[in-house]
């Protein structure tokens, strides 16, 4: 009886819904007419912004469109996901903070330097500024996954010969924030040769459109014969590490092919199954700026006393800084003698401070004049 009544009620609701579906309300039903997401629509609400003296355009240079590359793994290419100005802005934010990239060790401990991954990298804070925020929001609209599930944006730089060998993005030891379910990799630069993102477990028949093999033109040996994406400034590759049923998809193993000519800059955003560090999901205060590794400062007034207690050596990681890792700058770099107090116009001194704290000094156009003021302790 109860079951029967439920069925009748269900049919009635379906009929009512059918009435509601017709006419003016169609636009609320994405997918009703076969479409799921129209990239051009997303740009409509975007406003041109000026940030740090730079104009950030509101529209991409070419019409954005989304291409399904493969279902095994689930991989999609969003052409013109970011504007050239947005790409340049991400690089400008990331370049002064670049350090040698680490891999998460098998024990799940802190990162370690490894030849497995020879790029340089850094993280930008979620919602660090309005441009980051609008890209993160655009990404959540595309993926239909909440912004709070996104990790901080990782910026990577690969020079000649640098690569990232085949790996999965689902970590062996994942934390309370759920596993990484999807990865979005935005190419922030064009690359003259090499640097493709390839899925080495795939073969030609995994392409949804095998015509892509010809369309891509020449690719490096590392990418040949596999589903792959060629770096193109502004394009975003989205792939899922988890299948719809939650199991790991080993077809999503991927590699950053060696850069054969040029420099490859990327922004990576991992999207978790659940909220990522929900307690830190807010923008930094308006006066926030990243620490400047070229500036020689202490962040704690107790530094002279700590030095007298021998802590510069005993607690070097915290006081001098994590010189090889991607940890924070030392709290007492000045007092512990890791850096020199440079004259404001002394570029060599400034760059030496950066290098002595493990930071990368390539791409000088982003480092000098000094990019920003130092955050107060
Ligand atoms: C690298 O690319 C640049 C620009 O396309 C080109 O001029 C140069 O010859 C290339 N170098 C090599 C080694 O292929």
From TrEMBL:
Topology in the lipid bilayer: Single-pass type II membrane protein
Protein localization: Endoplasmic reticulum membrane
Cross-referenced InterPro entries: Oxoglu/Fe-dep_dioxygenase_dom (IPR005123), P4HA-like (IPR045054), Pro_4_hyd_alph (IPR006620), Pro_4_hyd_alph_FE2OG_OXY (IPR044862)
Domain of life where this protein originates: Eukaryota
Domain Fe2OG dioxygenase: residue ranges: 149-273
Keywords: Dioxygenase, Iron, Metal-binding, Oxidoreductase, Signal
Major subcellular site: endoplasmic reticulum
Gene3D superfamilies named among the record's database cross-references: q2cbj1_9rhob like domain (2.60.120.620)
GO cellular component, as recorded: endoplasmic reticulum membrane
Catalytic activity: L-prolyl-[collagen] + 2-oxoglutarate + O2 = trans-4-hydroxy-L-prolyl-[collagen] + succinate + CO2
PANTHER family (UniProt xref): PROLYL 4-HYDROXYLASE 6-RELATED (PTHR10869:SF238), PROLYL 4-HYDROXYLASE ALPHA SUBUNIT (PTHR10869)
Name of this protein: Fe2OG dioxygenase domain-containing protein
């Amino acid at each position: 009886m109860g079951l029967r009544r439920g069925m009748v009620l269900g049919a009635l609701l379906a009929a009512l819904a059918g009435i509601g579906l017709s006419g003016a309300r169609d636009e609320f039903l994405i997918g009703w007419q076969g479409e799921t997401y129209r990239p051009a629509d997303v740009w409509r609400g975007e406003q041109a912004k000026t940030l740090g003296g730079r104009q950030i355009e509101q529209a991409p240079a070419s019409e954005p469109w989304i291409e399904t590359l493969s279902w095994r793994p689930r991989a999609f290419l969003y052409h013109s996901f970011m504007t050239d100005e947005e790409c340049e802005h991400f690089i400008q934010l990331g370049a002064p903070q670049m350090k040698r990239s680490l891999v998460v060790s098998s024990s799940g401990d802190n990162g370690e330097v490894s030849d497995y991954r020879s790029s340089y990298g850094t993280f930008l804070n979620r919602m660090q500024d309005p441009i980051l925020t609008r890209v993160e929001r655009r990404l959540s609209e595309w993926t239909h996954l909440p912004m709070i599930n996104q990790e901080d944006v990782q910026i990577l730089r690969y020079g000649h010969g640098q690569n990232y060998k085949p790996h999965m993005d689902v970590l062996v030891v994942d934390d309370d924030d759920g596993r990484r379910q999807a990865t979005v990799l935005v190419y922030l630069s064009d690359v003259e040769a090499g640097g493709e993102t390839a899925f080495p477990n795939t073969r030609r028949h995994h392409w949804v459109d095998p015509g892509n093999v010809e369309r891509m033109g020449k690719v490096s040996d590392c990418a040949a014969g596999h589903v792959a994406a060629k770096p193109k400034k502004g394009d975003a590759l989205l792939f899922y590490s988890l299948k719809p049923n939650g199991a790991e998809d080993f077809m999503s193993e991927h590699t950053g092919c060696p850069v054969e000519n040029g420099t490859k800059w990327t922004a990576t955003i991992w999207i978790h199954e659940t909220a990522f560090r929900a307690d830190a999901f807010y923008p930094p205060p308006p006066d926030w700026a990243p620490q400047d590794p070229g500036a020689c400062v202490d962040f704690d007034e107790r530094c002279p006393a700590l030095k007298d207690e021998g802590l510069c050596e005993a607690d070097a990681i915290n006081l001098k800084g994590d010189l090889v890792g991607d940890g924070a700058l030392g709290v007492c770099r000045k007092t512990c003698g890791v850096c020199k107090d440079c004259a404001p116009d002394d570029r060599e001194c400034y760059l030496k401070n950066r290098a002595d704290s493990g930071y990368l000094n390539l791409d000088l156009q982003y480092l000098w004049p000094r990019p920003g003021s130092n955050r107060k302790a």
